[in-house]
């Protein structure tokens, strides 16, 4: 293996890297990247960064998914970036396209209204397919079924700090199911009826609601009102057993039947976040403060001088999104500290 790895200069592992690679325990985990063929250059950059900052020392495999076949050019440009296993998968049609149960006239009217109101991606069908796929299907893809843990990566994101331990193993050892680096408000116009459906589901299925849940992070009044806070799902390290389990399966199917992925524009971020808040206990949700992460236009940069210097971070700690007015981080902090409902 070291022969192959040595071909990857100037990024080839040091003797320390190789020792760690040989010694460490591994989780049953993979990166997952949903991408279009046109996302090639951004995908290359994202993989290059996560390799440099983390994976050259850990060698976790990658799964790349697309609803159309990846081109030969795409696959060869990606495969040279890592010595880890890389698999390219085609998404089954029934996991991607708008189902026949959706009333297309009603869906079109919803898109036209949102486009007219200048809601981002408001007129896009493919964006809705993507959000529904990420909500309910990526963890059921045949290439993903063999893994328990995943780390979601998108084209053109940045990892700003060295990650000097294994976040998957951390999640496993600390009984976590879901993690985030950035939390913010959702656009209300994309989810006008989502919260009402969530509460209907919760009333029908009290058995799924975790005892020490995070409802109060998202609601000031025990669930009547949604404050629109959610975790930004373009970064996720999480446990697919949670998505595959009875609570989330019933929840996703219930939401899918309401049609809001197409009649409105429900994002996978609020859907995942609300599920994690209700069906996991609050200490099963982890904030990865030490992972410096950027997805345009926001960056989470570790603030504490210790973390920032230790990670050799390239981000500006003064420009971290955490305490921006549009961030929900201070609500998360207050919720974790006091348990109180958040406006
Ligand atoms: P945003 O982060 O909400 O602005 O949305 P993005 O455009 O970044 O899309 C989210 C993820 O889905 C990225 O990994 C994209 O590469 C991927 N994606 C979005 N639309 C499509 C699509 O139509 N087909 C495929 N295969 N991937 C898509
Ligand atoms: Mn994105």
From TrEMBL:
GO terms for cellular component: Golgi apparatus; membrane. It holds the Pfam family Glyco_transf_15. One of its GO terms (biological process) is protein N-linked glycosylation. GO terms for molecular function: alpha-1,2-mannosyltransferase activity. This is Glycosyltransferase family 15 protein. It comes from Gymnopilus junonius (Spectacular rustgill mushroom). Keywords: Membrane, Transferase, Transmembrane, Transmembrane helix. The active site is at residue 236. The keyword Aminoacyl-tRNA synthetase does not apply. Belongs to the glycosyltransferase 15 family. The keyword Oxidoreductase does not apply.
